[in-house]
Write a structure and sequence with these properties.
The protein is mainly α. Helices cover 83% and strands 0% of the residues. The protein contains three helices and no strands. Helix 1 packs antiparallel against helix 2, helix 1 runs parallel beside helix 3 and helix 2 packs antiparallel against helix 3. It starts with 5 loop residues before the first helix and ends with a helix.
Length: 86
């Protein structure tokens, strides 16, 4: 696999954590089938983050970290969505 530059992996990670968790996921959750879209994008982020980290650690550690980083914006998105509802 091609090596992903650290600056690119870091920029995508920060954009996903902040942009998805605070802005995109709460907006999606207010829409029909939004939970399905959030689930699909969380799975896609897990795969993407695993690819970013796959060269630096063993597969189990990379998978655990990828899952953690992908679930974090989903958790924040659900929290923001519930806070916005009142």
């Amino acid at each position: 696999m091609a090596e992903v530059p650290n600056w690119l992996a870091g920029a995508v990670t920060v954009a996903a954590l902040v942009g998805f968790g605070i802005f995109l996921y709460p907006w999606l959750l207010a829409r029909r089938y939004g939970a399905v879209a959030v689930t699909a994008s969380t799975v896609a982020l897990t795969v993407l983050f695993f690819h970013f980290d796959s060269g630096s650690a063993n597969a189990a550690v990379s998978a655990a970290l990828a899952l953690l980083w992908a679930v974090a914006p989903a958790a924040v998105g659900v929290l923001v969505f519930r806070l916005q509802r009142g």
